[in-house]
Model the fold of this input.
Amino acid sequence: MRAVIQRVTSARVHVGATTVGEIGAGLLVLVGVSRSDTEADAKYIAGKIRDMRVFEGDGKPMDRSVVDVGGSVLVVSQFTLYGDMRKGRRPSFDEAASPELARALYDAVVRELRTAQVPVATGQFQAMMRVELVNDGPVTVLVDSTRRF
Done:
């Protein structure tokens, strides 16, 4: 499982003319699921999102987590995180999970965060979405449950 995590002052997701998810200060998280991912990967990613220290605290630029600062998380499914560009000019998505598996594990990430009392908004799974954000810093961190980066 992969996540692109961005510290934001605000973020929102639109499907058509409807805003389906919106947060103020916190983290925008794009989540991609691979064919080999399990619930353990979802728990790992959710834990990283919850605990990563990328917010200012005590005069230090990266000392607090989203929980520590009372922020929110906007989680958006993003199968293209498993696009492979090693050959040719068109990405291959062979490693991306099926929609059924991806949905279950995406929901598991959201559930884990909510269980930890983190306010969570979401995009709409399998929809064409427009994501707006104001990146704070900018701060962007990549996380991979297989620890490839």
